[in-house]
Design goal:
Length: about 350
Amino acid sequence: MTRSAIPDEYLEGYAGILADVCATGRRLTRNELESLRARGERAAEAGLGLRLLVRRHLSAARELSPALSPAGADRVLAAVEQAVDAFAEGYERSQKLAVRQEEAARREFIDDLLYGRSDLGRLAERAERFGLLLSRAHAVAVAQGATPVDDTHPATRQVESALVARFGERRILLTTKDGRLVCIAPGDQDDVLAFFAKQAHAATDGGRAALGRAHAGAGGVVHSYEEALNALDLADRLELEEPVLRSADLLVYPVLTRDRQAMADLVHNALGPLQAARGGAQPLLDTLTAYFDSGCIAAEAARRLRLSVRALTYRLERIHKLTGTNPADPVHRYTLQTAVIGARLLGWPGNEV
């Protein structure tokens, strides 16, 4: 923008103020300073560059300098310093307000998007402002660390910098919600979410990430987000060790718990007799969990439990005797393994079912 492109209204009366200061040696009045701040705010709202505006103020002072004595020049420089400082203060105040308003609008949009609120047509219009085209399918990834994060957290900035460096101007939205990192990307760009999960795992010192499936429309974003949250919840309840989870790989668990009462009945009938064991049901339930997680390999299960193979075998025999179901029998195994999964999901035996 050239000098002539800066409207004269932003320097109206400025030369007169400098001339009066030069003649009297006074400082700028409170009203003059407030007027300069107000002009700075208007200039920022108009989108004018601060460097060019400051240059115009300096140029106006320079036009007076040939006719000034050394004392007058010092007075003008002091006045210019006051004036530019006030003008810049107003300019920065306007910019900070605009940033706060933008942050508030962005946060409101994120809340509406992830909770499925607001009119879908209006939501789609607002989404374009933040780089999303809701006419396309999108998938959501959520990462959770040991400590909550927000938009200003170092982990958030680290992941955002990595995404920008890797994918540039792709239509990706990174944000935070309820202390977790959230990444929304087009559904056909699985590499984005996989990269996000890897970076979030590192930035949160070993946190876990979950990826929802791709779904179409604004409602699809909510659906994918909820899938990712449910995957994180399942990982906690089932004590899964994987750092990255895909909801598509965990679909069997919502199916198993869809009829909670039926699952509770299975747990009670299949595993309830274990409560009669010395020490309660938990040690034997842990034995079954390790046995099934190790692919029903006794040596590996014993290693995980820090037991001898003989001790593990004794426990399996005890389970068979109490429940009437043999963990080593393929016919019985499915029932027991399903009941063990249900117990972990329902928090049994800590919670009554």
